[in-house]
Write a structure and sequence with these properties.
Blueprint (H helix, E strand, L loop, with lengths): L1 H20 L4 H16 L5 H22 L3 H30 L4 H33 L6
Length: 144
């Protein structure tokens, strides 16, 4: 019984970590799902493939633009575009976590907001990590 409690705690911590690692994918997944549903309702045959391509394309384009742009304002706009859905997803996950833990009232709202802000920050960190890794490749001088 003790082993199951320990393994359950480890699994819960892993799932919480997975939430923050996948936070930056909230916008591309939402756009891909919306594209799929729109095309399916219009009777378009390969709607699933187009939804997948939309989500993957938006994800790659957003990361590429964030890594390649030099303007801080554009980088902030792209970062906020990815952070808002991640924060909303984190807010929903925090509310569900508070419900599972049996927390009510103001503490429930505080936990939900804390998880939402943490998910949004994780999304920004994920974008910034891609920028720093691509920046080192870009700034390396080439000798001809």
């Amino acid at each position: 019984m003790t082993l199951m409690i320990i393994l359950g705690g480890i699994a819960a911590l892993y799932l919480i970590g997975l939430l923050f690692r996948l936070a930056s994918l909230a916008l591309p997944v939402c756009l891909g799902l919306c594209a799929f549903l729109l095309l399916r309702d219009q009777g378009y045959g390969p709607a699933l493939a187009m939804g997948l391509l939309t989500g993957i394309g938006f994800h790659l384009a957003g990361r590429w633009l964030f890594a390649r742009t030099t303007s801080a304002r554009i980088r902030l706009l792209i970062g906020l575009l990815f952070m808002a859905p991640a924060g909303a997803a984190g807010l929903g996950a925090g509310t569900a976590l508070a419900d599972l833990l049996g927390i009510d009232g103001g503490w429930r709202t505080c936990l939900a907001m804390l998880v939402g802000v943490a998910a949004a920050c994780a999304s920004w960190r994920s974008l910034a990590a891609d920028r720093s890794s691509m920046g080192t490749m870009r700034d390396t001088p080439t000798v001809r």
